[in-house]
Specification:
Blueprint (H helix, E strand, L loop, with lengths): L9 H5 L2 H6 L11 H16 L5 H26 L9 H12 L5 H17 L4 H7 L3 H26 L1
Helix pairs in contact: 3-5, 4-5, 4-8, 5-6, 5-8, 6-8, 7-8
Length: 164
């Protein structure tokens, strides 16, 4: 494994397409809370591309982005010397895109989704914690955030029932 890089820079970001994507097109370079910045990037980018695609097209694209993310993260984690380096945020982006696709299309629902997703991503309830602690590769990094997305969607569904 490579020597651990503390904070990747613009040169690292642009050195390989996998780095560019794994670091969320640069959002992972934020000096503080890169996961939050990656999730904000996901939200903003979703609002930009959503009008141009149907739901099934997006599901297909998200599945491809998820599977590709396993490789992007594997390559980038190896180069950084840490399979789950804080600057790697693709694992926040793709699951949050999925959440937004399945969330009512209003600011407050999306804000609730954002806050819940960040909460579950940070606290890592089981089985997310298992993936985070024991599966140290691109699959494990992507999987723990997909679990956080599942918890987020469950809470949003329950909230929608309560508010109905």
């Amino acid at each position: 494994m490579a020597e651990q890089i503390r904070r990747p820079d613009l040169r690292f970001l642009l050195a390989h397409p996998a780095h560019f994507l794994a670091l969320g097109c640069g959002s992972g370079l934020a000096p503080k809370a890169p996961g939050t910045f990656g999730t904000l990037f996901a939200w903003g980018s979703f609002l930009l591309f959503r009008p141009y695609f149907g739901d099934f097209q997006l599901l297909f694209l998200f599945a491809a982005a998820y599977l590709g993310g396993i490789w992007f993260i594997e390559v980038t984690g190896r180069a950084l010397g840490d399979p789950d380096h804080g600057s790697i945020v693709w694992d926040e982006i793709v699951p949050f895109w999925l959440i937004l696709l399945l969330t009512p299309d209003t600011f407050y629902w999306q804000l609730a989704a954002f806050m819940l997703f960040r909460w579950f991503d940070i606290t890592k309830p089981q089985p997310a914690r298992y993936f985070d602690q024991h599966v140290k590769n691109g699959f494990g990094v992507m999987a723990d955030d997909l679990v956080a997305a599942g918890y987020t969607l469950l809470c949003l569904a329950l909230l929608k029932i309560v508010l109905a």
